[in-house]
Write a structure and sequence with these properties.
single chain, about 325 residues, alpha/beta, Rossmann fold, two-stranded antiparallel sheet, globular
Length: about 325
C-alpha cells in the first residue's frame, strides 16, 4: 500500500513481484481510487480518445473517472500501442490519464512489451501509414505484476519452488533491462502467514490515502509554479515522474547524508543514468509526502528499497 501511495503521488510506474494469491491484481485495481480525480482538461482528453473507438456509454457525455485498462497477455503490439489501416488508439492511449495494468508481465510477447519503451518516455505515440501519420497521447501509469518464476513460488517461505535455476533465469529474461529501467518502483508482494491473516488490522480508506496523494501533488505543483516565476523557460509538470534533468537539478536538493547514500546506492546497484534519475524522482515524491523541501537521507533510503528488485531478480 505504501508503494502504491508513493506511485500515485508522483505518477510513477510500478512492478509488483510475488507468488500467486498475494493480492497483486487487487492492489492494482484499487490504484485509481487513490489517484487525484480527473480535472476538466483531462476529462475532455480522455473522453475524446474513448469516443474515437466507440467506448462511450449511451448515457455518458464525459468520462469523469480515471481509466483502468487491463489487456490480456495474448494481445498484439498494434492492439497495445495503436494501429490499423485507419490508425486507431491502442490500450496505452485508452489508459491516458489513468492506469495500464499488465498482469503476468513475462507472458506477454517480448515484442509487445518492448513497444512500450518509447511511449513511456514520450507520453505520446505516433502511428505512421503511407497516407500520413496520427499522434495519440498516452500519459499513463504502468502497473505490472508477475510471479518470481514460472511455477510462482521461488523464494516462498513454505511452498517449494519446482523450477530449475536455469528456468528462473529464462523466465526473468523475458523482461528486458531497458524496460525495467523505465519502471520507477519495483516491490515484492509477500505471502501472509496464518498469524498475519488472523490478526485484525486497522485499515485506511482510499479517501484518506487520496487526501495525502493530493497534498503531495499540490506541494509539487506549487514548487514548479514558483520556479517558473523565476525562470519561465522551466516546463510546467504535473507529476514528479515527468521531471526532466533540468527539473531534477533544481527541485532535488538534498543534505550531505542523503547525497552520500545516493552515491552508495548508485554504485552498489549498478544503476544506469536513467535508473539514477528515476530513483531521485521517487525520493522527491517521498519528500513531498512529508512536505519536505529538502530530500533527506530517509527519503533516499526508502526510494532505494523501492528500486532493488532489478538487481535481485533481473
Amino acid at each position: 500500500k505504501r508503494a502504491l501511495e508513493i506511485a500515485a503521488a508522483g505518477g510513477h510506474n510500478v512492478l509488483m513481484i510475488g507468488p500467486p494469491g498475494t493480492g497483486k491484481s487487487m492492489l492494482a485495481k484499487r490504484l485509481p481510487t487513490i489517484l487525484p480525480e480527473l480535472n476538466f482538461e483531462e476529462a475532455i482528453e480522455t473522453t475524446k480518445i474513448h469516443s474515437i473507438v466507440g467506448l462511450l456509454k449511451e448515457d455518458e457525455s464525459i468520462i469523469t473517472e480515471r481509466p483502468f485498462r487491463s489487456p490480456h497477455h495474448t494481445m498484439s503490439a498494434p492492439s497495445l500501442v495503436g494501429g490499423g489501416t485507419n490508425p486507431q488508439p491502442g490500450e496505452i492511449s485508452l489508459a491516458h490519464n489513468g492506469v495500464l495494468f499488465l498482469d503476468e508481465l513475462p507472458e506477454f510477447n517480448k515484442a509487445v512489451t518492448e513497444s512500450l519503451r518509447q511511449p513511456l518516455e514520450d507520453g505520446q505515440v505516433t502511428i505512421t501509414r503511407t497516407n500520413g501519420k496520427v499522434t495519440y497521447p498516452c500519459s499513463f501509469m504502468l502497473v505490472a505484476a508477475m510471479n518470481p518464476c514460472k511455477c510462482g513460488y521461488f523464494g516462498h517461505p513454505t511452498h517449494p519452488c519446482s523450477c530449475k535455476e536455469s528456468d528462473i533465469k529464462k523466465y526473468m529474461s523475458k523482461i528486458s533491462g531497458p524496460l525495467v529501467d523505465r519502471i520507477d518502483i519495483q516491490v515484492e508482494v509477500s505471502s501472509l502467514t496464518f498469524q498475519e491473516l488472523s490478526t485484525p488490522r486497522a485499515s485506511e480508506s482510499s479517501s484518506e490515502i487520496r487526501a495525502r496523494v493530493n497534498r503531495a501533488r499540490e506541494y509539487a505543483r506549487k514548487r514548479c509554479e514558483a520556479a517558473r516565476l523565476e525562470d519561465s523557460a522551466i516546463p510546467m509538470i504535473w507529476r514528479n515522474a515527468d521531471m526532466s534533468t533540468r527539473h531534477l537539478s533544481r527541485f532535488c536538493r538534498m543534505n550531505r547524508n542523503a547525497s552520500m547514500l545516493l552515491q552508495k546506492a548508485y554504485e552498489k546497484l549498478g544503476l544506469s543514468a536513467r535508473g539514477y534519475d528515476r530513483l531521485l524522482r521517487v525520493a522527491r515524491t517521498i519528500a513531498d509526502l512529508d512536505a519536505s523541501e529538502m530530500i533527506l537521507e530517509k527519503h533516499i533510503a526508502e526510494a532505494v528499497q523501492l528500486r532493488n528488485l532489478d538487481r535481485k531478480y533481473l
